[in-house]
Amino acid sequence: MRPEDIPARDQYGRLLEDRGVWRQATTLEAAGELTARWLAGGSSYQPGHFAAGYDDETGPLAGPLAELNRSGLFTKESQPGIVEGTAAQRQYVTGFCSAATAGYLLALSTRTDLVTVAHAPGESSSAAIPVTLDGTEVVTVLGSSENPVDEEQIKAWADETNDTLALLLADSWYVEILDPVWGRNDVLLPAVLGALTERG
Predict the structure, then answer these.
(1) Segment 8-58, tens digit of pLDDT
(2) Per-position b or e across 2-23, b if 16+ CB within 10 A of its CB
């Protein structure tokens, strides 16, 4: 095969060169930095996100999410708060972190009206807190652990990144933080950043 015949992008449009950098990421800090770069438009590859860029609704959140990733929370998912016709969303962010960081984020629930659900490494849970509604239909829920808790999940993370990071994520805390007020967007991300900054 000639060099010019080697594909530059995968089937989702993500640059394979950007994927190569994830092969070197073996800490939560490194994963957070690469995620921040992706949010800033400096990369087209994000593990588990099967497109070259983020969704349109993430645009206004990209800057604050990048700060969270550089402050100790390797984010996995997020959404803005929306109330539009019969559709409604609660703002939330989820991610992987250390036990100490999980403690700081859990404490948000003691001094604000934000809700933090913290999952210990290897914990499998299936709670269901609605965060997205389409009329009366619940579309998205939080409360389920996203840690790679079985061999198949660890393999999926390893395929997208590397074996070391996949095993680290399996041994990390997974947190879900949501704003209980439908449609509100100005409380959650600043509060989470504040908790991460306090942690020092």
Answers:
(1) 888 888 888 888 899 999 999 999 999 999 999 999 999 988 888 899 999
(2) eeeeeeeeeeeebeeebbebbe
